[in-house]
Amino acid sequence: EKHVRYIITVEKVSYSIRKLTCCPDPLPQYLQKKDAFESVVMEHLRMNGAYWGLTTLDLLGKLHVVDQDEVISWVMECQHESGGFAGNIGHDPHILYTLSAVQVLALFDKLNMLDIEKSVLEGQISAFLVHDDLILIHRAEKNYALGLRSTLTLYSDIASLQNEDGSFSGDMWGEVDTRFSYIAICCLSLLHQLDKIDVEKAVNYIVRCKNLDGGFGATPGGESHAGQIFCCVGALAITGSLHHVDKDLLGWWLCERQVKSGGLNGRPEKLPDVCYSWWVLSSLIMIDRVHWIDREKLIKFILDCQDLEQGGISDRPDDAVDVFHTYFGVAGLSLLEYPGVKAIDPAYALPVDVVNRILLPHD
Ligand code: GRG
Ligand code: ZN
């Protein structure tokens, strides 16, 4: 019965994603809600919304419903001269949006948009001009040179955010957080450019953010929080440094996040929330302790958060749906190997086939 209920909503979920994200709207005019609340609040973080929505579609086997060229065109328009990406056209760049932009390009197998110089050398540039004239349309004569320059500076832009103690700032204004350590490491790894930063120092800083309870915080001494734990464990996984984690201690803290309803919370005494199906579960998988939680009860909790009429998933049952929780609900189901959902990589937060395409050696 559960299965039937789910299959019906795959269509609904992908439909609601198209309504909620930046993606060129293939919906009939009368169904478009330009002034919708979601659309307004999402304005400054459209790039994250695009990543959440498009990854959800890919996990459900529905990525083809969006116009790939239009999405890529929009993403590239959000790139700043510094090399980093903004949350929307004309906004300031921030590493939070840079990762989403890189992930969206990865979904469409378009990371070569970031390395125009290499594409030229490999003779891919003519294909680029023919099929992806989008950049030329938007930035006319400046574009070709700008592309070349941005390519080189994207890597150095991320690298320039590393501080003396190994930590990372999110942008030129300097806020430091282990979220940014994860993002820098994840991005540069996807781009095969980890050598651009001091990985050892970056790892040492993350280890300094480890607490006595086995968890990790945003900065040294900061309280353990499941979101921060995902970032630190993910960064350690990507850099092959998981030996710094006390797996039993952290696994115990993480599995204690499951509450009576089956849902997971992000810290002791807090309410359960669908997004922790990602932050907690991905961390448990990376440290081989996912069997310490009750799988069936968590699946039920996530499915109970669906809007069966409109599609989409909310933070907890009967709340309003949004693209963030829809993504993390579907990603959680993916980590739980729910039938019909593609596998997602717990460290890179991208479908496994996408990560393999980028990282597995090929001739
Ligand atoms: C690629 C998946 C992916 C992420 C990129 C931005 C980032 C890296 C990670 C964010 C990690 C993080 C801190 C997540 C937590 C988000 C969240 C639900 C915060 C709410 O915290 P509280 O304390 O709410 O306001 P609770 O649930 O504790 O009541
Ligand atoms: Zn949430």
Distance between the termini: 46 Å
The backbone outline, from C-alpha atoms, is globular
Overall residue-averaged pLDDT value: 84
Largest sheet, strands/sense/barrel: none
What is the gyration radius calculated from CA atoms?
A: 20 Å
Tell me the number of strands. Answer: 0
Tell me the helix content: 40-55%
Would you write up a description of this structure?
Residues 1-8, 21-37 and 125-149 have low confidence and may be disordered. The radius of gyration is 20 Å and the shape is globular. It has 17 helices and no strands. It is mostly helical. The structure holds geranylgeranyl diphosphate and zinc ion. Required for male fertility and root tip growth. Belongs to the protein prenyltransferase subunit beta family. This is Geranylgeranyl transferase type-2 subunit beta.
